[in-house]
Design a protein that fits this description.
2 copies of one chain form a homodimer. In chain A, 58% of the residues lie in helices and 9% in strands. Chain A has 130 residues and is mostly helical. The first copy, chain A, starts with 10 loop residues before the first helix and ends with a helix. The first copy, chain A, binds a DNA duplex (30 and 30 nucleotides) through helix 4.
Chain lengths: 130, 130
DNA sequence: TATTTGACTAACCTTTTGTATACTGCTTAC
DNA sequence: GTAAGCAGTATACAAAAGGTTAGTCAAATA
């Protein structure tokens, strides 16, 4: 039995799936969520590190994103007090569960991008390659 | 060789993937895109049909969504003149390419939903089930 | 002939999202 | 002791997305 979203299913089932879809799009949506996640894959970072790594993000937005990412279990905020006070953010193992979703999205996005590009101005592309 | 997005890759590669991701999220993002697509899986529909099916969408937004979906190749606008003028919207075969993406998103969304729910107020859930 | 339906568009308003700039309180470096 | 770094918060503003109401023009219906 293969699962197809786009097919005849009951209305309840369908709205359930739509909600799940909405949730998923919500937690990874927005302009910066994925940038933050990806920045943290290089290793734990502190607030100002993150802001420097992610060029263009403001402190306010970064702060909000980190809070939401924490709520959703992707990111952990670690407070060290040992030599001196210091706060780190790290990705949780849970964030790995996004892997298949992100891969599909990237795969489709790349395909779509090249499709759209090949439809528009294919002549120009040929000329440019001369 | 398995493809992992979250791993050590070059900066160029990474921004390429991020762009693709952005594209993908853009074309299926927004409040109504998927509603429209799903409404059309039941069969071709006319403008006012769609507006009735998708409760809550306004004519303005529906019109915009249809235009974007057309631009992205998901939807075709068919103008009949035969018995009388009549306009239909139909899903293209290209829209099927979204299938794997949507499935992953739904799968993850459902998983995440139940995870979040089980973290919050598990006591209440128990009480409620008595 | 008057009303309804279809397929929209236009003008305007509200909400959400993101940006810019400044500021805080604390600690460390020069 | 002044400056700079850390980890943010506060305030104000701009842009984008979405909602509301009304209106168009043509054809079909009552």
């Amino acid at each position: 039995m293969e699962t197809k979203l786009i097919q005849r299913i009951s209305k309840v089932e369908c709205t359930g799936k739509l909600n799940a879809l909405g949730d998923a799009l919500y937690v990874i949506g927005g302009k910066w969520k994925l940038h933050v996640i990806i920045a943290l894959t290089e290793g734990n970072k502190r607030f100002n590190d993150l802001q420097r790594t992610i060029t263009g993000i403001s402190a306010r937005v970064l702060s909000n994103e980190l809070k939401e990412l924490e709520l959703n279990g992707f990111v952990k905020r670690i407070v060290h007090t040992e030599p001196n006070v210091l706060i780190e953010y790290e990705l949780t193992p849970y964030s790995d569960t996004l892997q298949p979703v992100l891969n599909e999205l990237v795969k489709w996005g790349e395909m779509h991008r090249s499709k759209i590009r090949s439809e528009w101005e294919p002549a120009t592309v040929l000329e440019a390659s001369l």
